[in-house]
Amino acid sequence: MPVPHRPARDMALMPAPEPSGAVATQGDIQQPRPPTSLQGLLRFCMEATKAEDAPHDSEFQAMDDERRTFLENALKALTVDVVEELQRQINILKNVEQVKADDDPTRYSDAIDKILEFIDDIDTSNDFHKIGGFMILFPCLRSPHPRIRVGGCELLAVLCQNNPYCQQVIIDNGFVSELLRIVEKDEDINVCIKALYALGGITRDNREALEQLLSHNGLEVVVNTLKRNNEKLITKATFMLSAFCRMIPELKVLTNVCSYCTNSHFHGTSKR
């Protein structure tokens, strides 16, 4: 039986690559080949948007001196030299001891607020100490103005948050006993709250700081705050005492503080 004639056909295992620049056709309209690389995609986009380009040549030219000066000044205005700014506020607070009870403390409290904007960064906190910033802390804590005392306590609290370097400086320079004095004797409740906040930051995960607090009868001072009629103060004291018991478990046996905190305060406040 005769075999039907078939046209000759060479079939390669791999198809031959199409020549560069080949295009697919659809009817009489040529379609560009889809890009297969980033360079191809860029070329495709440039070709597709060519009609949208400006009809004239670029007028790019070197910047003149006046424009360059304006741009440099604008960039400088947006850039803050943190250490220089801290030093400026420290210089203001160096005179805080001269403030009398009937003076307006706004200038000094504003300086504290500006420092607080920067020292939540650990490196900046360390720089604050290295440029002499800690010298203004005791005068702030002992100011006749509650606003400045509050600010001084908050400075200490922020400086020592998770910062072993500043914690050690604070431990070595008697701030723990000063803060305990404030908690025990200051008549302004907001100052007491901030002082507890600072003590909590100093003693957090720091056995040496906690032992120093205990050596100054700090446990009794903190426990006594639970008897004061202020929810924020009691809450801060409660969490501090619980943290103390976690760090030194023996405190549970010696004082029963933790059970008091858990059962008396938390259950009591939930019923209020």
Automatic annotation (TrEMBL):
InterPro entries documented for this protein: ARM-like, ARM-type_fold, Hsp70_NEF-Inhibitors, Nucleotide_exch_fac_Fes1
Keyword Repeat: yes
Designated name of the protein: Nucleotide exchange factor Fes1 domain-containing protein
Start and end residues of each Nucleotide exchange factor Fes1 domain: 38-127
Cellular component per GO, a single term: endoplasmic reticulum
A GO MF label: adenyl-nucleotide exchange factor activity
Region spans: Disordered: 1-34
